[in-house]
Write a structure and sequence with these properties.
The chain is α/β, with parallel strands linked by helices. The protein has 16 helices and 8 strands. An 8-stranded parallel β-barrel has the order 1-2-3-4-5-6-7-8, surrounded by 7 helices. α1 runs antiparallel to α5, α1 crosses α16 and α8 runs parallel beside α9. The longest helix has 20 residues. The termini are close together. The protein binds flavin-adenine dinucleotide (FAD).
Length: 359
């Protein structure tokens, strides 16, 4: 049987029966678990992680389970065309072209060199070099854009001090161009270090740097209270990583409510906020706060991802608000794209088509 037809059989079975793992395969039985089509999602950290992740996966609706399991079983060349709707391209020139187009629509950009969790100092330094190129290119092409970075790409998991040196090198270049660097927030294993590095930079007098808060994290209210006194520049998002229930909110509505609560606190605390969402409910909530607090345009901006909800973007700009588009590019597109697929169940049907036409 070909890989495609095995997968097709599995997908049909899930659609028909729902996915029920046999008892001996359900949790903890790592060896067996690797045989499961959901295994790519179950990263064993040796702390019962598989059990928790399995539990969350089985709580997802069947369509979402299908998307995630199907996509991650496919060979990357098959996934790539779908991934490219969220990515400017593989080269810096591609990103420059996209940001130019974004700027021509009176929107700003933030450019991201794709990559995360690098394993060696050489890879980190290559990433720093690529980000330097981005900053030079923004300047020479007169783009209205800044830079977003991920600390695990700069060596956070290798050596924190090495990572800090890398970030400071970039901030030095950004400062020369009067530009700005946003430190993205990654999974919960990095939150303390990321906020710690941000606070340290600010205490050293670095102003042109921002951080991200995730509304799905239970700790975020405390983090916001820590950030308000330093008037942090905060991007507020829902959070893109699957986290354990003990530390993360799960329900759509509770995450929305927490988002609005955090947004209100940040705006009242006079922090500059990047309101990063494609959720109409949250955009409308933000509009209401902006009106109630009579905020000038210069106190906040909306932010959206390249490839998502173009019409909402246009509406926000037409309504007179500032908006920034997150433009990722580069060859390490896989992890980023999987997170985007997770947020877009519709893509499942494109994937099915690809599977069946290929089998
Ligand atoms: C500029 C920006 C930067 C971000 N930075 C970070 C970060 O540093 N750390 C982090 O953890 N997360 C980050 N995120 C991701 C964020 O946490 C969410 O995972 C993501 O934005 C989806 O949440 P949402 O608020 O758009 O709401 P959702 O409820 O997920 O989406 C609302 C609607 O938008 C549409 N939509 C959403 N995603 C997609 C998609 N992929 N394809 C097609 N349609 C879609 C759908 O119509 C959906 O109904 C960022 C998001 C943005 C916009």
């Amino acid at each position: 049987m070909t890989e495609g037809s095995q997968l097709a059989k599995f997908l049909k079975q899930i659609l028909h029966d729902g996915f029920v793992a046999p008892a001996h395969r359900q949790v903890g039985a790592n060896q067996e678990n690797h045989k499961s089509p959901l295994a790519p999602l179950c990263i064993d950290r040796g702390d019962g992680g598989i059990r928790k992740r399995w539990h969350r996966l089985t709580q997802m609706n069947p369509a979402n389970r299908l998307i995630l399991s199907a996509i991650q079983l496919l060979p990357r060349p098959l996934v790539k065309p779908f991934a490219m709707r969220y990515i400017a391209g593989e080269e810096l020139d591609d990103a420059v072209r996209v940001v130019r187009a974004v700027n021509s629509k009176r929107m700003m950009g933030t450019m991201d060199v794709l990559g995360e969790n690098v394993g060696t100092r050489e890879e980190s330094l290559a990433a720093v070099g690529a980000c330097e190129e981005v900053l030079h290119s923004i300047h020479y092409n007169r783009l209205d854009a800044n830079l977003s970075i991920k600390l695990t790409q700069f060596g956070l998991k290798i050596d924190e001090e090495f990572c800090r040196t890398n970030v400071k090198r970039l901030l030095g270049i950004a400062s020369g161009y009067n530009n700005f660097v946003r430190i993205d927030m990654e999974d919960s294993s990095t939150t303390d270090e990321t906020l710690g590095l941000y606070e340290r930079l600010r205490s050293e007098g670095v102003e042109h740097v921002g951080v991200v808060i995730q509304a799905n994290m239970r700790r975020s209210e405390e983090d916001v209270l820590r950030l308000i006194p330093v008037k942090a520049n905060v991007r507020l998002c829902k959070g893109a990583y699957i986290e354990p229930d003990a530390i993360a909110l799960r329900g759509k509505e509770e995450i929305r409510l927490n988002y609005l609560k955090l947004l209100k606190r940040l705006l009242e605390g006079k922090c500059y906020v990047g309101i990063a969402t494609h959720d109409d409910f949250l955009v409308n909530g933000a509009y209401q706060y902006i009106q109630e607090m009579n905020l000038p345009r210069s106190d906040y901006e909306f932010q959206m991802l390249y490839g998502v909800k173009g019409r909402l973007r246009d509406r926000i700009v037409a309504d007179g608000h500032r908006l920034r588009v997150y433009v990722p590019f580069g060859r390490s597109w896989y992890a980023y794209s999987i997170r985007r697929f997770k947020e877009n169940p519709q893509i499942a049907w494109y994937v099915f088509q690809a599977i069946f036409s290929g089998s």
